[in-house]
Amino acid sequence: MLGGIARQGFTLGFVLLGIGFVSAFPPAPYYSIYGMVRDQVGQRVKGSSDAEVVLFKEGEEISRSSITNLSIAENYELAIRLDAARAGTTLYREKAYAVNSSYSLAVDINGIRYYPIEVSGDLRVGLGGERHRLDLNLGSDLDGDGLPDVWEEWQLYQAGERPDESGNWDLSLIGPDGDFDGDGQKDGFEYIAGTFAGDASETFGLDIKAWREGEAHFEFYQITGKAYTLEASPDGESWEQVAFAVEASPERASYQADAVGVVTATSPAENPQTLFRLTVR
Ligand SMILES: [Ca+2]
Ligand SMILES: [Ca+2]
């Protein structure tokens, strides 16, 4: 909520700039972070007023910003106010950050506080005006590989692995750059795509089945909760996002799956040589 107020304040400043009162305000440069908050099994955290990213400075809460459903590519954005380092602005500075100083984050969902894996790294404030993508993945990460351990244990279980007598799983079998099931797709990629990293029969991909009457016909394997977009290219170099229709639904810019399984899709394509690629988030 406070994040929303901060953004309104920024908008207000911008409006005032238009009518010439800006000199009454100290400059308020911001460094922004944005990205996707995912739960410990890799699913996008749904936006709500009870889901917020919280910003800390030296252990003290500075601001918070709601997780939203507004964009398919990201579900949070947080503006970090930078210290203009001017004399006589002590109060202002308490909530501002020096460039390259450290900050920390937490995620509050329905009154429960979570610490994203990324917080264990060294988070540093960048320059004013910069926008930096920082996806936040919730859950513990005892093996320090950036993948939530709960998701890794799920993949191991699904592949027939079991914990040892002490209840410990061999998390070293799975890693972001590994390919546990040998299907050619990295475990870290399967985490994002929502496919099983321990089942080589389950992979992310786009099968182009046919072209007829100005339409390309596809199949792909959808995973509940994942969002898909389609891009087209005449030459494999320049790509642009295109609308597509899944099953009998109307054409749309993106598609969010509500089930698991193979679906058919179509997209207009005047040229049968058009190349397509699918993106999953
Ligand atoms: Ca891990
Ligand atoms: Ca794999």
Task: Write a structural description.
- By secondary structure, this protein is α+β, with helices and mostly antiparallel strands.
- It has three domains: 2-137, Immunoglobulin-like; 149-193, no CATH class; 206-280, no CATH class.
- Helix content is 14%, strand content 32%.
- The protein has four helices and 17 strands.
- The strands form five sheets. It has a four-stranded antiparallel β-sheet with strand order 4-3-6-7.
- The model is unreliable at 1-24 (pLDDT under 50).
- The protein binds calcium ion (2 copies).
> Could you say which small molecules are bound to this protein?
calcium ion
The CATH architecture classification of the largest domain is Sandwich
Largest sheet: 4 strands, antiparallel
The separation of the N and C termini measures 26 Å
Write down the Rg.
22 Å
Rounded mean pLDDT score: 88
Helix content: 10-25%
**Run of helices and strands:** HEEEEEHEEEEHHEEEEEEEE
Structural features:
281 residues, alpha+beta, 4-stranded antiparallel sheet, 14% helix, globular, disordered N terminus, binds calcium ion
Tell me briefly what this model is.
The protein is of the alpha+beta class and 281 residues long. The protein is built from four helices and 17 strands. One calcium ion (CA) binds at residues 141, 143, 145, 147, 149, 152, 171.
Topology:
Elements: H1 2-19, E1 30-35, E2 37-38, E3 48-57, E4 60-67, E5 76-81, H2 90-94, E6 104-109, E7 112-114, E8 131-133, E9 136-137, H3 149-158, H4 187-193, E10 206-212, E11 215-222, E12 227-233, E13 240-242, E14 245-246, E15 255-256, E16 261-268, E17 275-280
Parallel strand pairs: 1-8, 2-9
Antiparallel strand pairs: 1-5, 3-4, 3-6, 6-7, 10-11, 11-16, 12-13, 12-15, 12-17, 14-16
The structure holds calcium ion (2 copies).
One calcium ion is lined by residues 179-181, 183, 185, 187, 190, 197.
